[in-house]
Amino acid sequence: MSDGPTDLPAPREAPDAGPYWQAAREDRLVMQNCYGCGTYRFFPSLLCPECGSEEQVWGPCSGRGTIYSLTTVHRAPSPAFRKIVPYTVALIELEEGPRMMTNIVGEGRNEAAIGDAVEVCFEARGTDAKVPQFKLAGA
Ligand SMILES: [Zn+2]
Q1: How far apart are CA 122 and CA 30, in angstroms?
Q2: Ligand 1: distance of its center to the CA of 55 in Å?
Q3: Domain that residue 124 falls in
Q4: 5 CA distance to ligand 1 centroid (A)?
Q5: Does the pLDDT of residue 62 top 70, yes or no?
């Protein structure tokens, strides 16, 4: 599923998330990292939620995490998703701290469980976008 472009919808890129989407095109996961206290955050925001600092850099993430919560989608939300149901939507807790909503893709995706180790991969969408997704570690 993450080997080539799909006809699934391309992401709508919010202006303040430009570095996130550009890094995804390069198969890298980045998040805002507070220059003041070092906290990573997701989604992007102007101020650090921990210390209020406006100073931040887009820091690299390991791409490793664990499944905090998940559900299996059996009914497609739009026609484009019909060919991939059932699929797993999960809340991933990254090593750096933030949690992000994503899909579990690849081998064993529908047997994934809370606490499983996962690692990021990138799924091509549209003409030049990629979406960070996660697969079971070692799968
Ligand atoms: Zn901070």
Answers
A1: 13
A2: 8
A3: 62-139
A4: 37
A5: yes
Tokens, residue 14 = 């919010």
Tokens encoding 88: 């797993």
Predicted structure pTM score: 0.90
Both 47 and 88 in a single domain? no
66 and 39 in one domain? no
- Give the tens place of pLDDT for each residue, 48-61: 999 999 999 999 99
Clarify whether residues 54 and 66 are in a common domain.
no
Would you mind telling me the total number of residues written for the chain in this entry?
139
pLDDT of residue 15: 86
pLDDT score, position 139:
75
How far does residue 44's CA lie from ligand 1's centre (Å)?
Answer: 13
Ligand 1 centroid–CA 74 distance in Å is: 39
Q: What is the pLDDT of residue 53?
A: 97
CA distances to 11, 18, 65, 103, 120 from 135, in Å:
19, 24, 10, 8, 6
